[in-house]
Amino acid sequence: MDPTNDEDTRTLLVTGASSGFGAAIARRFAAAGWRVIACARRAERLAALAAEFGESVHIAAFDIRDHAAMQAALAGLPERFRAIDVLVNNAGLALGTAPAQHADLDQWQQMIDTNISALARITRHLLPRLIERRGLIVNISSVAATYPYTGGNVYGATKAFVTQFSLGLRSDLHGTGVRVTSIEPGMAATEFTLVRTGGDQTASDTLYRGAGPITAEDLADTVWWVANLPPHLNVNRLELMPTRQSLAGFQIAREA
Ligand code: NDP
Ligand code: 8X3
Questions:
Q1: I want to staple 130 with a disulfide (CB 3.0 to 4.6 A). Which of 37, 63, 135, 136 is the partner?
Q2: Which residue's alpha carbon is at the smallest distance from atom 6 of ligand 2?
Q3: Are 226 and 237 in contact (CB under 8 A)?
Q4: pLDDT confidence of 8, banded at 50, 70, 90?
Q5: Over the stretch 116-155, which tens digit does the pLDDT of each residue have?
Q6: Which atom of ligand 2 is nearest to the CA of 192?
Q7: CB 92 within 8 A of CB 114
Q8: 86: enclosing H helix or E strand
Q9: Inter-helix orientation angle 119-133/153-172, to 10°
Q10: Beta bridge partners of 214
Q11: Is 65 in the pocket of ligand 1 (CB under 6 A)?
């Protein structure tokens, strides 16, 4: 891509660009000369991103659960950001680690609204533009979509939706040239655990210490790789884990 040629420049929209994976993805692509639309609620974080990269980053601060706000932000895109080549559905969160029988229903609802409903809506909204560009959709799912763990309940189920929705999109978009990839990471050191625990920095530090977690830059490099594959190649699902994380299976509650 020749960044001096405006026709050549490709555009990526990434949700959840104010921290973690999303911020690293925005930086990775902007640094390589792409136009980047960076979305999240925290406008001051997005402004810092725009200050770093100037005119190649357009920021859109809105709550992705708010359908009208999402539509208004996309309708208000400047002309040069309107043709979108890559949509990265990254905004999402886990709230709480309580087993289902003790879980907070409002937290469940927020995860469903963000990880499922908002992701589906923005995707539907942008599909005509992505089809026009023979674009790419990268959905950030999780290993929690496939492997259950105690306290993962609704979070894991929302990510199972993300993975299955990705496969469904592949099927519906057959013949359009649009590619769809579900990326399914394991433990990654971002603000994810801080959010999940309601701001417990010690819990977050303790979880990641000595675990060699995935970094936001690892994930950004992965999205970069997927986005730069030749057009005839589609990565359907990509599961990533830190080497130090692995799977442990079943449990048995024995009779007393
Ligand atoms: P972070 O908490 O660092 O980033 C989450 C991003 O989502 C923030 O930019 C946040 O922005 C945005 N977001 C959350 N809620 C909303 C909302 N209502 N409206 C708009 N934006 C929102 O976590 P990660 O970078 O780790 O998470 C990114 C994705 O990766 C998530 O979907 C997560 O489930 C997934 N994931 C994370 C893993 C990990 O271990 N870290 C592993 C597997 C998957 P703001 O608060 O400014 O709105
Ligand atoms: C985040 C990964 O294993 O903490 O999606 O649920 S995990």
A1: 135
A2: 144
A3: no
A4: confident
A5: 999 999 999 999 999 999 999 999 999 999 999 999 999 9
A6: 1
A7: yes
A8: strand 86-89
A9: 20
A10: 188
A11: yes
In the chain, the percentage of residues whose pLDDT exceeds 70 is 97
What mean pLDDT comes out for the span 14-40?
98
Domain boundaries, the chain: 6-240
Ligand 1 center–CA 188 separation, angstroms: 11
**Ligand 1: centre distance to CA 195 (Å):** 9
Pocket test for ligand 2, best of 95, 155, 245 (most atoms within 8 A of CB): 155
pLDDT at 20 over 90: yes
* pLDDT of 5 above 90: no
Average predicted confidence (pLDDT) for the chain? 96
Q: Which atom of ligand 1 is nearest to the CA of 41?
A: 48
| Residue 209 φ then ψ, to 5° | -60, 125
Specify whether 208 is catalytic: no
The answer to whether the CB of 24 falls within 8 A of the CB of 220 is yes
pLDDT for the residue numbered 249 = 85
- Please give the pLDDT value at position 1: 53
- Residue 87 CA, distance from chain mean position: 9
Q: The domain 6-240 is classified under which CATH number: 3.10.450.50, 3.40.50.720, 3.90.1580.10, 3.40.50.150? A: 3.40.50.720
Q: Is residue 201 within 8 Å of residue 193, measured between CB atoms? A: no
β-pair partners for 12? 36, 86
Distance CA 9, CA 86 (A): 12
| Residue to mutate (ligand 1; options 49, 70, 192, 217; most atoms within 8 A of CB) | 192
